[in-house]
User: Fold these one by one.
Assistant:
Number 1:
Amino acid sequence: MIHILAKHWWVLVLRGIASLIFAGVAFLMPEFTFGILVTLIGIYLLADGLLATYSGWRLRGQDEEWWVAVLEGLIGVGLGVASLANPEISATLLVTFIAIWCLLTGAFEIALAIRIRKEIEDEWQLAFAGVISIALGVLMLVQPNAGALSIAWWVGFYATFFGLLLIGLGIRLRRWLPQG
């Protein structure tokens, strides 16, 4: 499995770059109206979901649990489409969408880190991204009525850490490729 992930290391790096771009927008322009924030989050969830689905699909035939990564991606795609299809979505529902996505993504990331721990050193990067995802999901469920600015900052911090950790993991996986 690690060799398939290493072969497609660039997908993790792209996911990390998308996270960092989103974080930059969230931090630099927090005064966006809620509709713009919903659209940005929808685009981010859709892009991340598509890349995660692609990664999982590439594992098909190589790993019996490839469907878990596809499921993670499809959840992101579904939440992204739901956010984009209804930009007037309520703040509480948006926070709930993001919280559910963070909780599920975090659980999938921790599970994957546990599965690959025998094949790669320092799998803690993926596990840590999972812990951050779960922590943000819990925080958002505990404080669902936070304003759009708070949501932008929460998601911005999450996207920064998540992006950096995915880029780090992608670069580490790239080292597993045969040279030549």
Note: The longest helix spans residues 148-174.
Number 2:
Amino acid sequence: MAKIVSGRMTHHHDGELVVFHVGMTINRWLRPDLWWPVARLMPPMLRELSQDPDSGLLGYEMLLNARGPHIVQYWSSIDRLYDYASATSLSHRPAWTRFNAMARRNPDAVGIWHETHVVERAESVYVGTPVMGLPAATALRPVEKHHHRARARLADGATTAPEDARSHPRER
């Protein structure tokens, strides 16, 4: 069991931060022959990314909901995320090709989804939990006296994006 950290904790991170949610929806639970091969594709990718300190993956949390697995990933930049997704020499592209072939043979058996968030500012608080989420992916810090309220933590913007990423795309 992971060690519980006492007290009010938060995260700290300077630089670009990308939060990437990716998940699988199992639409035919009684057909593990259709969804299990897809579910087995993610662990090798996470292992590959975790073993490469230059991959850009800062950390991840694996969750399970009623529809299937859901992974929250924290990345150091959008470019590193996109580089990994498109690299033909790494695990993602071949896995995506295999998923698409399976999906053509068995439409709607399994769904894949993702959301990408480039984070300008982020606020977090963890009380009496193991190190997880943003603090596990970035840096764990005690909540300072002037940061006891979420509004104050967010106002200080512990996470900041590069200057050019803050402008609206049409303003660049």
Note: Residues 92-105 form the longest helix (14 residues).
Number 3:
Amino acid sequence: MIMETYQKLIELAEAARLDVEKAHEGNKAAGTRARKAMQEIREQAKVVRDTILQARGPGGE
């Protein structure tokens, strides 16, 4: 389960790459898409973190 949630995080990051590159070049629309993608990545990173904590069992931290 941990690897599946982590793989989803990696896929989101890879999908955002083109928009991040375009935003770096000054494309404002790509910047908006990149910021949205970063929010999705942030949310997925939290899922990965929570999944890891659950796998550790009670008293996870």
Note: The chain has one domain: 2-55.
